[in-house]
Design goal:
The complex is a heterodimer of chains A (101) and B (186). Chain A has helices spanning 6-9, 26-39, 56-68, 73-79, 89-100, and strands at 2-5, 44-47, 80-83. Chain A is mostly helical. In chain A, helix 2 (26-39) packs parallel to helix 3 and helix 3 packs parallel to helix 5 (89-100). Chain A is globular. In chain B, helix 1 packs antiparallel against helix 4, helix 2 runs antiparallel to helix 3 (93-104) and helix 3 packs antiparallel against helix 4 (121-144). Chain B starts with a helix and ends with a helix. Classes of the chains: A mainly alpha (101), B mainly alpha (186). The interface between A and B is medium-sized, with 24 and 30 residues.
């Protein structure tokens, strides 16, 4: 399993939906970290420890966007895991976006 | 220990138990006051965040600094709520999620921002989810500190009624014993 430390490897302030919204958007995160791993069939643990908040639009685009990009919902649910030690509602919210996308 | 020695030491035993019980209740009262104050502070922060969120969405243009500030505040409030109500925060997850969504899911992108009217669906949803979050915090507080004696949960709330009954019986016995003792005096 590969672990992506969002704060260290991407941004402490991930935000925005599309790449037009800035360099640390959900779309940029998905393209940079999630899609390559899923194409290889690799499990990914996305660790939000140290981030200073992530908006729902970022989360929806990064994770729900995987299903819209063509990855089967079951595969995404199986391969992507989210951890947020101080905001435990985030993994649940992400799961909802994957299920509803 | 003879029966008479035991009876002679009984007042000391009763006094020692009384001191321990009074100390525990005092500790619990202090903790309850502290949690109440912090819950009130969180509710004030939620109210302030509701105003910030409404101002952000009704603003003339997308304010990137304020957007980041709102995200940080949402995260900080959840972290504080988790420390405050502990395990009960799991029960708040739905309220926390819909609150975050009301502020940051729609119209939160620089590329698609549209200034909202104060009576728009987005602003109304911010108000509604803030109220629900506040109520959930209150409910979590009252689940930890019920509004009746002994004012805190005993054994996860399962023994609250038993504890209250035992303390009432204990107090009744003390009063009864004192009155009996006084009546027997020559």
């Amino acid at each position: 399993m590969r672990t992506v430390f969002v704060a260290k490897q991407f941004s402490r302030h991930p935000g925005g939906r599309n790449e037009n919204d800035g360099p640390f958007s959900g779309e940029a995160f998905r393209r940079l970290f999630l899609e390559p791993a899923l194409k290889r069939g690799e499990k990914v643990l996305v660790d939000f420890e140290g981030t200073r908040g992530a908006g729902s639009s970022f989360l929806e685009e990064a994770f729900g966007g995987l299903v819209r990009a063509g990855f089967p919902r079951e595969v995404v649910l199986d391969l992507v895991e989210v951890r947020h030690p101080t905001n435990p509602s985030v993994p649940r919210e992400v799961k909802g976006y994957i299920e509803q996308a | 220990m003879t029966k008479s020695e035991f009876l002679a030491s009984l007042p000391w035993i009763v006094a020692a138990i009384g001191i321990v019980v009074a100390h525990l209740l005092s500790e619990a009262r202090e903790r309850r006051k502290e949690v109440r104050a912090q819950t009130d502070k969180l509710i004030e922060r939620l109210a302030a965040l509701e105003i910030r969120g409404t101002n952000f969405h009704t603003g003339a243009s997308f304010d990137a600094v304020e957007a980041r500030g709102i995200e940080v505040e949402i995260s900080s409030i959840e972290r504080r709520a988790g420390r405050l109500v502990g395990a009960a925060v799991a029960g708040l997850a739905d309220e926390i999620i819909v609150h975050r969504q009301s502020l940051t899911l729609r119209n939160f992108e620089k590329s698609k921002f549209i200034s909202q009217d104060a009576s728009s669906a987005i602003c109304q949803e911010i108000a509604a989810t803030t109220a629900a979050y506040e109520e959930a915090l209150e409910a979590a507080y009252h689940s930890q500190y019920p509004p009746r004696f002994p004012y805190y949960r005993v054994a996860g709330g399962r023994l609250n009624d038993v504890f209250g009954t035992l303390v009432a019986l204990w107090a009744g016995l003390l009063v009864g014993a004192t009155l009996t003792f006084l009546a027997m005096q020559p």
